[in-house]
Specification:
Length: about 325
């Protein structure tokens, strides 16, 4: 009972003193608290307010410690400024708590005033008392055991984000598959060109094809020798770079005689042209042996004028043997 009367008296006294304003010539300060009694760990709000006329002087805000008299300030609000006529009003909110039971005092906060004329002086707020009490415990009742874990019922909304994630994953997978399926496949590189045929290989192939057609055996000796000579003309142009397609037999023989690579094989060409002219212009026809001979002369000329591939000597060719 005595403790109850004590706290009741404190509460009444705090309510009577809950708002205090100290007036000075150039500035005023005041403070109020919203609770005179709290439970351990709870918070009370303390409001500080100051007014000053800038034309008369300046106000220096009070230094507020973080702890005092077993009380702690858990939060310091920013200092707000409001213009009211010629005066400037400053306001700040403090959150105070305590973790020990008892009656504690909030000390006064001291402000410095610097008048435009005269000496500096200080003003302060009044102090406050706060009762901090513990949570009442009924010791007459026995201890209650810890309750077991209870299962919480769930519904589909508890899994909504899992469902959304699964849908997004499925759509992304389908999109990637469709993209890969419809993506334009790179065109296959064109096949490499066939290896170029040498003039010798081409001439021998055409002579072999002409021989297999057996034109002179089918009463076409003129056509046979005309094609044979044309094959040789193209070969000479491609092999030696000599223009002979519009040349006569004598002109071709002359060009072969003055050409260093053909001069030694001029006799083969002379035999071929003799038999060909005989088949094309003379009344007498070449014998089967002459037809065969013309083909053999042509093949010999092509083979005899095949370019000679010179292999460079090995680096070790001239290396003297080591002792």
């Amino acid at each position: 009972m005595r403790t109850a009367y004590k706290y009741g008296f404190i509460i009444l006294l705090t309510l009577l003193m809950g708002k205090h304003t100290i007036y000075a010539q150039d500035a005023t300060v005041g403070a109020r608290i919203d609770a005179a009694q709290i439970t351990v760990g709870d918070q009370a709000r303390l409001f500080i307010e100051a007014k000053v006329d800038p034309k008369k002087g300046k106000l220096q805000w009070a230094t507020i410690p973080d702890t005092f008299n077993k009380l702690e300030i858990v939060e310091k609000g920013k200092i707000d400024t409001v213009q009211q006529g010629n005066e400037v009003i400053y306001k700040q909110r403090l959150l105070i708590t305590g973790f020990d039971s008892g009656l504690f005092m909030v000390p006064p906060f001291v402000f410095s005033v610097l008048p435009n004329g005269g000496n500096a002086y200080t003003i302060q707020t009044d102090s406050f008392t706060i009762g901090v009490q513990t949570v009442p415990v009924d010791t007459s009742k026995g201890f209650v055991g810890i309750k077991g874990i209870r299962e919480v019922k769930s519904n589909w909304m508890d899994y909504i984000w899992y469902i959304v994630a699964a849908i997004v994953l499925i759509l992304a997978t389908v999109g990637v598959m469709l993209y890969l399926k419809n993506r334009k496949k790179p065109e296959a590189p064109p096949p490499p060109p066939p290896p170029s045929e040498t003039p010798q290989a081409k001439a021998l192939r055409l002579l072999s094809e002409l021989e297999q057609r057996k034109l002179w055996e089918n009463n076409q000796p003129k056509e046979y020798h005309t094609e044979l000579v044309d094959i040789l003309r193209k070969y000479i142009e491609e092999r030696f770079g000599v223009d002979v397609m519009e040349s006569t037999s004598d002109e071709i023989l002359y060009k072969a005689a003055v050409h260093k690579d053909m001069s030694q094989h001029r006799l083969l060409l002379s035999n071929i042209f003799y038999i060909a002219d005989l088949a094309k212009f003379a009344k007498a026809q070449p014998t089967p042996q002459e037809h065969h001979a013309a083909m053999e002369y042509a093949k010999q000329f092509v083979n005899a004028t095949r370019p000679v591939v010179v292999t460079p000597p090995s680096e070790n060719t001239n290396t003297p043997p080591q002792s």
